[in-house]
Amino acid sequence: MKNLKIVFLAILAAFALPICGYSQTGEIVEEEIIDGEVVSTQLSEASAAKRFSLSGTADASMFQMAILELGNKQQFSTLRYTLFFNTGFNVNYQVSKSVQLFSGLGIKNLGLIYRTDSLVQKYRTYTFGAPIGLKIGDLRKEYFIIGGGVDVPFHYKKKQWVKGDRSTKIKAREWFSDEVNPIFAYAFLGYRFSNSLTTKIFYYPTNFWSGSFVPGNRSNIFMLTLGFDLQSKIKDKSVVFGQN
Fold this sequence. Notes:
This protein is mostly beta strands. It contains three helices and 14 strands.
């Protein structure tokens, strides 16, 4: 629980930190590098506020696999598809005409399927997390998305049954389970098309399982997502960038 408190405090701090600088007199100041020199420009609070926007995100369809290290063997897990619940929102900050910085909150359905010669095993956990990244390109239409983030698992479920005999199924659910790591770190790269369709590739270097659950074994998830990034309307750039 101590780790969870640290993560949530870090998320709150990230939202509380101002992205614009402030002068000693309390005025909002923007700094740009022009011809090798730092040029400061004062912005009104109204102009600076218009640099912020909200967007609804839904990674929605997720195709997940894991690189498994079981004993001395390495293999891929079975492809896993999930649709619910993978959604969230972002707060965007307009850095320039073609760059946005963003962070937000979201929920993911993260897991893997592992098959042996005799058993089928499924593991999944819902996570609550915060990304941070950049959108680069034509922000009204198409752009690249790059970044990373952390997810905190909060509801865990596992199933197991003998191949070909579903009557042998056993399952268990648990809040904040010790069988998975308390924090997942990840990186992602994506592209948003003009119709709002978004595709992303995620990689989780953090082991899905905790060391106490399967000592010495690893499972690193990677996934392809198809979803949407629904931007709120970007204001006219002459207003957004504080030029009267």
